Amino acid sequence: RTISPNILNKSEMPQSGNDRVRLATATIAGLPLKMAIIYVFLFITAFSIYNILWKNVPIMTLDSGGYIRDAQDLSDFSVDRLHARPPGYALFLAVTGSTEKPTRALFQSSLVLHFTAVWLIAVVLHALGVTGLRLTAFGFLLVLPPYTEYAAYVLSETLSEFLLVVGFSTLVLWFLRGKGFHLLLISGIATGCSALTRPTYQALALAV
User: Fold this and answer.
1) In sequence order, what E strands does 14-166 have?
2) For residue range 101-119, what is the model confidence (pLDDT) as tens digits?
């Protein structure tokens, strides 16, 4: 029995149309594939440029010494004295090896936190219908120095930014999707951790 060439060709023909549809609708961590590639390129470029140009960071400020002392006290997993500040940022300093002096790992970790926050905001904007050039411009704008410079200081701003964005973005995504208990769980944990970074954020849970 012979098989028709037309039938054979149809059965072996790649579903190019379906492949294009799947590619167009593919997402990476909440962003369309093409937009995710653009954002990764922006982040890698900004990370590399700041690491080359900002050679003398992290920069100490008037409040930095207190955070360093708290990190030294927490580095042995015990509290030997009362702290004037909540332990969140001091623990972040200890994790990045900045108990004696701020390390380069602290600066790089702060950059990663900032870029992650930008990504999460972009995911929310995309879910709200923002696409294309506007979403690209948003990502480009927020990797510029005026919005990234706090990562260069030994201050809790970048960690606070990250925790607040995680808390609110996951809450908004849960509201938009109408499902996903894990999003509510993440939002609650991030909101609680933000209160450990800045005490004024303890009221966030009540506000939400």
Assistant:
1) 27-28, 31-32
2) 999 999 999 999 999 999 9
